[in-house]
Design goal:
There is one protein chain. This protein has twelve helices and no strands. By secondary structure, it is mainly α. Helix 2 crosses helix 8. The radius of gyration is 19 Å and the shape is globular. It starts with a helix and ends in a 10-residue tail after the last helix.
Length: 321
């Protein structure tokens, strides 16, 4: 049964990449300039931003949880970084502070969810709304500031890295993807993550502390959400508290399309990358076909609902091994 489980996961990942390629071909046939170099760069940048935001969701879903605070942490990082930098703070110091605060937020999510045995959907949504409210109180609802030129260049669609006709964000994401895949497949943390997600009751018998795993994993999720928030600051050029809202369910959908099970114990970041490409292709294709933003949003919502309802109803891994 274990080999069948792995074969099913790998097949789903391959299917997601094939679907992304098919969507690209369809777009090329239907929309003039769809595969033009600038259009490809734009698609890769947008996909990379979603991929960064989806790192934490991948980890917590494998763990058996879910993180609905991601869009709120993205907005928090976006606004706080812009506001402090606009007040004259050194941007490196700003990033360190934002990262520390995000880690604290994520650790609190994990501590309350596992320590008090409250469903993470409720905890992360509640903590996220508290964070959003605190930011609104601090800024008075009118955030200001911007990102330094280095960050804007890092994510600029028109940027390039030496001979590569793409911004530095894209090759950095490729390296980050390789690192995360290595961590998940070759390190004690990765093995413990899958073990807790597969059978949380049996994990302590293997000398694994589930509470520590939840705290560390949710802290990592919030940290990468904060990174996405700072990158989005460079991408948009100004602070916006709701900049992370589109990522609320897109991160979940990307993880599920990539082969993860919402019941935990299964998934991979490479699969998430495939899911990110599928969602980005769908969004780009609908916009290119002339659909209004409201229609695109509704269509994406329908796609996400169908995918999550299809893939999220599977039996827990421990019942199939």
């Amino acid at each position: 049964m274990t080999s069948n489980w792995f074969q099913s996961t790998n097949a789903r990942i391959a299917g997601a990449f094939a679907m992304a390629l098919l969507l690209q071909i369809v777009g090329t046939l239907l929309i003039p300039g769809y595969s033009a170099p600038f259009a490809i760069r734009a698609l890769l940048v947008i996909a990379s931003l979603l991929a960064v935001a989806s790192i934490g969701q991948t980890l917590v879903v494998i763990l058996g949880g879910i993180d609905l605070s991601i869009p709120f942490v993205i907005g928090f990082a976006n606004v706080v970084a812009a506001q402090l930098y606009g007040q004259g703070w050194n941007f490196t110091l700003v990033c360190v502070l934002v990262g520390i605060l995000a880690i604290a937020i994520g650790a609190l999510n994990g501590l309350i969810s596992r320590g008090l045995n409250i469903h993470p959907l409720i905890v992360t949504l509640g903590i996220g709304m508290i964070v959003q409210g605190a930011v609104l109180l601090w800024t008075g609802g009118f955030p200001s500031g911007s990102a330094p030129e280095a960050v804007s260049s890092f994510v600029s669609i028109g940027g390039s890295v030496g001979p590569l006709p793409m911004p530095l964000l894209v090759p950095c994401l490729v390296m980050l993807t390789a690192l995360i895949v290595l961590v998940l497949t070759r390190t004690p943390y990765g093995r413990r993550l899958y073990a807790v997600g597969s059978n949380p009751e049996a994990a302590p018998l293997a000398l694994i502390d589930p509470l520590r795993m939840w705290i560390v994993t949710y802290a990592a999720s919030a940290f990468f959400a904060a990174v996405a928030g700072v990158l989005l600051l460079g991408f948009t050029g100004s602070a916006y508290g709701d900049v992370g809202q589109p990522y609320l369910f897109q991160t979940i959908a990307a993880v599920v399309v990539g082969g993860a099970a919402l019941v935990g114990g299964r998934g991979s970041y490479l699969g998430t990358i495939a899911g990110v490409l599928v969602l980005t292709e769908i969004n780009t294709l609908l916009i290119g076909l002339g659909f209004r933003p409201s229609t695109v949003q509704a269509a994406l919502g329908l796609v996400i609902l169908l995918l999550v309802s299809l893939y999220g109803r599977e039996r827990h891994v421990r019942t199939t091994i």
